[in-house]
């Protein structure tokens, strides 16, 4: 277990509502939004209720333990996949529930809300330095934990340039499925993520059809990414962020091949790739 601590702030879980043990006393009463937040520090998780109008609470943490506190703290025995559930009984007697998947595993020191890149200094592996075919990319790093893939890039560009981001992901680590592209060798890209994340435009697409066909279906996936600290200084644009592993097909596997591309705002062509154009996609080993 990596002893570095990480802290997930304001991670809003708006889970799908399921009608629970009770029923609304009035058929016209709308179902409430059952919402809670979590903070994770190694094996310890703080649960914070954000649901309004609740009479009583019951938390089941997914490991046999439970609590009736509104905002409990629970320590898991070790690594694993857990499904904590919050049951709420409303003032009208109706009972509702919401669940989420929680993975307790490798931790990361990366924090996205500290207005700093200094935490990336602790990431000694999964680092890439661009070569002559990298274009505007200068440096990149990846890290991960049980819930997220983190990324950090240094690029010789600006936000005002409007460069379009693309992540090509071989999410099943199988070159026999997904798009084969000249940009990166040795990968069959099952997932494309495209947009400008700094202005809240990022979309997920899944490949379909022949491997030599650039055909992707757009997915209706929300809250699958977050941008952290962004800085323009010394001719470099530095950006950090994360992808939610459970939201995107295949990212809960033990490894993923990643290729990052910046394209001109008018789509006329790429201005940078990481790794270098024509090089093998970067393999992020997530087996720990």
From TrEMBL:
Species per Swiss-Prot/TrEMBL record: Pseudobacter ginsenosidimutans
Protein name, UniProt field: PKD domain-containing protein
InterPro entries attached to this UniProt entry: Ig-like_fold (IPR013783), PKD/Chitinase_dom (IPR022409), PKD_dom (IPR000601), PKD_dom_sf (IPR035986)
Gene3D superfamilies: Immunoglobulins
One Pfam family recorded for the sequence: PKD_4
Superkingdom, taxonomy of origin: Bacteria
Sequence ranges assigned to domain PKD in this UniProt record: 56-109
């Amino acid at each position: 277990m990596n002893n570095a601590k990480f802290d997930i702030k304001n991670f809003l879980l708006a889970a799908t509502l399921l009608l629970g043990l009770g029923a609304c006393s009035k058929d016209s009463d709308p179902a409430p939004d059952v919402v809670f937040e979590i903070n994770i520090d190694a094996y310890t998780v703080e649960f914070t209720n954000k649901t309004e109008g609740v009479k009583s609470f019951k938390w089941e943490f997914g490991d046999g333990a439970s609590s009736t506190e509104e905002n409990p703290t629970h320590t898991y025995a070790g690594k694993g996949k857990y499904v904590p559930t919050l049951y709420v009984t409303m003032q009208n007697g109706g009972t509702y529930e919401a669940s989420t998947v929680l993975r307790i595993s490798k931790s990361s020191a990366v924090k996205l809300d500290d207005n700093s890149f200094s935490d990336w200094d602790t990431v000694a592996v999964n680092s890439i330095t661009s070569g002559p075919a990298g274009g505007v990319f200068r440096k990149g790093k990846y890290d991960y934990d049980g819930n997220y893939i983190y990324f950090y890039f240094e690029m010789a560009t600006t936000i005002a340039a409007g460069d379009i981001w693309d992540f090509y992901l071989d999410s099943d680590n199988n070159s026999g499925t997904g798009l084969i592209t000249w940009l990166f060798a040795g990968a069959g890209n099952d997932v494309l993520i495209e947009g400008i994340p700094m202005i809240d435009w990022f979309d997920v697409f899944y490949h379909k059809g022949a491997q030599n066909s650039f055909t992707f279906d757009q997915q209706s996936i929300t809250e699958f990414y977050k941008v952290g600290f962004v800085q323009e200084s010394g001719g470099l644009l530095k950006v950090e962020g994360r992808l939610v592993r459970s939201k995107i097909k295949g990212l809960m596997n033990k490894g993923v091949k990643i290729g990052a591309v910046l394209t001109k705002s008018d789509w006329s062509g790429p201005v940078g790739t990481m790794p270098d154009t024509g090089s093998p996609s970067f393999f992020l080993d997530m087996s720990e």
